[in-house]
Amino acid sequence: MAAEKTLMQHDVQQRSEPDMQEPNKPSNPPPKKKSVLANLAFNIIIPTLILSKLAGDNYLGPIYSVVVALAFPLVYGIRDYFISHKPNFISALGVVSVLLTGGMSLLKLDPQYIAIKDAAIPGLLGLATLISMYTRYPLVRTFLYNDQVLQVAKVSAALAEHNTATQFERRLSVASYMIAGSFFLSAILNYILARLILVSSPGTTAFSEELGKMTALSFPVIVLPSMLVLMGAMMYLLNAIQKLTHLTLDDIFQEM
User: Fold this and answer.
1) CA atoms of 142 and 120, how far apart (whole Å)
2) Choice between 224 and 166, residue whose per-residue pLDDT is larger
3) What is the C-alpha separation between 222 and 121, in angstroms, rounded?
4) What is the DSSP letter of 199?
5) What per-residue confidence (pLDDT) applies to 244?
6) Distance CA 243, CA 94 (A)
7) C-alpha span between 255 and 151 (Å, rounded)
8) 86 half-sphere exposure, CB direction, 13 A CA radius
9) 164, 244 in Cβ contact below 8 A?
10) Which among 256, 246, 239, 234 is positioned nearest to 157, based on CA atoms?
């Protein structure tokens, strides 16, 4: 009997030890979220400022300014790929934009081609947004409905619980049209602004100064109206989520 009792105590002790150790196990750290601001800064804003402010002969010059500007989206995109194992769409856009702007400056092409390029990039984003609506990966989920900002898993569970997923997909389509509209608006304003300001020959100091002036004016003339449209799309989507899921804003947004 004593031997059986000892064996039972030993068995209970073995079973309880993992349970006691369970809370002390190091949990896997949550995946690091991308910063939208850093994404835009390293891929679009900083390269544009370098090309517009440092391309003069007194600074980096037309060739080295392209090299330095190109380094930012290239390094950021490679780093992001090794972290997430997915290509960074914004980094690819930044690389293409730098190559086109820098190449046109070095080739001293007519400024109208730069105006077309500045209009083409947001225009292509608008077309891509519309086309992606008919694929498995609509871009609206990248720009608005993503787990960097919203608790997508919780929202999806609430939609399934209230049987409103189909209604939400229709609202998501409307938001996609609004996002595409913001890109098309940006394309039109980009073209008009470039045609009005870029009048000197590319590769000259005057052209670099005009590029800097265009960059400075791009926020009030281009970015602000486009951001207002995007904010309208975001508010529309949030209103739809609240109505269809009965969740509060605290339940919808990610914790900061």
Assistant:
1) 20
2) 166
3) 13
4) -
5) 93
6) 37
7) 9
8) 5
9) yes
10) 246
Q: What's the confidence (pLDDT) of residue 37?
A: 67
CA 114 to mean position of chain CA atoms: 24
CA 208, 212, 213: angle at the middle one, nearest 5? 115
Amino acid at 138: P
1-20 in b/e form (b: 16+ CB < 10 A) is eeeeeeeeeeeeeeeeeeee
CB contact at 8 A, 69 and 44: no
Distance, in Å, from the CA atom of 195 to the CA atom of 167, rounded to the nearest integer, reads 43
Q: Where are the alpha helices (DSSP H) in the chain?
A: 2-21, 36-40, 46-53, 61-84, 89-107, 111-132, 140-143, 152-161, 165-197, 205-218, 224-245, 249-252
Q: How far apart are the C-alpha atoms of 22 and 175, rounded to whole Å?
A: 45
Query: Tokens at residue 206, please?
Result: 């005057």
Q: What is the pLDDT of residues 34-46, one digit of tens each?
A: 566 677 778 877 8
Let me know if 184 is exposed, middle or buried by CB neighbors in 10 A (0-12, 13-18, 19+): buried
